[in-house]
Amino acid sequence: MDETDKLQNNIGTTSPDVYLSEYSKTGSKTIEKEEEMPTVGPVELFRFSDGIDILLIIAGTLMSMAHGLVFPLMCVVFGHMADRFIQSSAMSKNNTRHFIPTNGTLQDDMASFCIYFAITGVLVLVAGYMQVAFFALAAVRQVKRIRKSFFHSIMRQDIGWFDVNETGTLNTRLVDDVYKIQEGIGDKLGMLIQSLSTFVASLIVGLYFGWKLSLVVLAVCPLLGLAAAIFSRVLTSFTYKEQAAYAKAGAVAEEVLSAIRTVFAFNGQRREIKRYSKNLEEAKNMGIKKAISSNTAMGFIYMMIFLSYALAFWYGSKLILNKEYTTGTVLTVLFAMIFGALGLGQTTPNIQSFSVARGAAHRVYSIIDYEPSIDSYSECGFKPESINGNIEFKNIHFNYPSRPEVKVLNNMCLSVKSGQTIGLVGSSGCGKSTSIQLLQRFYDPQEGSVNIDGHDIRSLNICYLRKLIGVVSQEPVLFATTIAENIRYGRLDVTQEEITQAAKEANAYDFISNLPDV
Question: Could you tell me what percentage of the chain is helix, strand and coil, using 3-state DSSP and rounding each to the nearest 5?
Fold first, then answer.
């Protein structure tokens, strides 16, 4: 095993951000650490939005507010309709006392109420569609830019940065964290604005039409809102844990399938099936707990709703008997306050999604903003007209970033003339591959310099330098494309004849020609 292989086994020991790799082990542990992570500001979360996105967000906000106002306003219409029914009933019994003056028959008034309900239905359809569409479209456009910037930033980092940041963690951020950002700034944000609008409008409607009954119902609404918040919190928590349990089972399946030949060779099928089933059992138990807890919380919510009905009807009947309120007023206040309490309870999961998005954005944006010490995209540096290839290592001292306490190269000196063939021999960990990586400028030495034709490679343009070097590592990697494209990978402007000549010089032309799909 080479020294770089040993070091890769210890990657991430000094990084503060590798906690995401523990997600498959314990969902609760990940959640706790996510809550402790710093977050970006609410405005900074939208830093990748352009003018069109801002217009979409503004339009989506207006539609969300309109959507949220519908339910409280419908309570007003419903209350008036109830009073009209009662008035018609009183008139049919020759009762000369009218609660609401009327200018037409009951049928005419009901036709008007039907028009109101139809208009409200169309408004909900249009506002609800635009709310989701505008926020989702703005989120998708922003996330596209975030993904491109994030991947570009990763590609320009130096190799030492990858030593202290696991590639699995980076992939998690590219997929999961960016999805959390999209979820937090997408339709969940629209639902948050809608719920807050419903709560505020319901409170205004209730206090305006009947402040006495509103204050009585408000005594119960905090319990109703708390129950809804607890329900969403419990559901979210158990969902994370259930997903983590299934992730563990999925990890076992992936591990077994990737090493299926070894499993068959040692006749370990039954043992692996038992291990997979054990993880599935844990996921099943977590799902049962989730169902019991969530349904208990939902039952408590409905219990509080019906208790608020009972309290409101009891006190409302007294106000009606005292001629202070009409029946329609009682119904308007009751349903408005209940809608407001439910709206307030529904804000909790959406606020949580927005907060999670801010935490995920802090992790993603910190990588996007990180400036590497060796920038592969930099245009700076000297580009000599010609290179002979004389290489010299002068008094090199080097430690890997992931293990600064281990000295890999200590005052190394080496001179290689152009055209000379040499072999570096030594035990694993003595610095053979490290020397080549220093020549490629994957790392810079702590002391000393690496020179090519008398030029310190730190003074050369990094892209120019790496185009001069061809390397076949101990564990070569082939990309999912043709062999010609793999050979062309280092220089995209080479011709097919040059590719063929390179394959011949590497003694690879004959076996490549014998491959079936050439």
Answer: 65, 5, 30
CA distance 441 to 429: 19
- Contacts of the segment 176-180: beta carbons below 8 A, 24+ positions apart: 176/20, 176/360, 177/20, 177/360, 177/361, 177/363, 177/364, 178/143, 178/146, 178/147, 178/150, 178/360, 178/364, 180/353, 180/356, 180/357, 180/359, 180/360
Q: What is the dihedral of CA 500, 505, 510, 512, to 10 degrees?
A: -60
The SS3 call for residue 451 is strand
Query: What are 76's two structure tokens?
Result: 């007003």
Query: How do residues 353-406 score in pLDDT, each as one tens digit?
Result: 888 888 889 889 998 998 888 888 888 888 888 888 889 999 999 998 888 888
SS3 for 399?
A: coil
- Token code pair at residue 208: 């305006």
Buried b (16+ CB within 10 A) or exposed e, 214-252: bebbbebbebbbbbbbbbbebbbebebbbbbbbbbbeeb
pLDDT per residue as tens digits for the range 45-101: 999 999 999 999 999 999 999 999 988 888 888 888 887 887 776 655 444 344 344
Across 335-493, the runs of DSSP E, i.e. the strands, are 391-398, 409-416, 447-452, 455-456
- Of 19, 40, 13, 48, the closest CA to residue 31 belongs to 19
| C-beta atoms surrounding 502 within 10 Å | 17
Surface-to-core class of residue 357, CB atoms within 10 Å of its CB (0-12 exposed, 13-18 middle, 19+ buried): buried
Taking a C-beta distance cutoff of 8 angstroms, is the pair 247, 34 a contact?
no
pLDDT band at 36 (very low <50, low <70, confident <90, very high): low
For 395, list phi and psi in degrees, rounded to 5.
Answer: 50, 55
The type of residue at 29 is: K
CATH topology of domain 33-209+347-373: ABC transporter transmembrane region fold (1.20.1560)
Instruction: Check if CATH label 3.20.10.10 holds for domain 391-467.
Output: no
Residue 452 has φ and ψ, to the nearest 5°, of: -125, 115
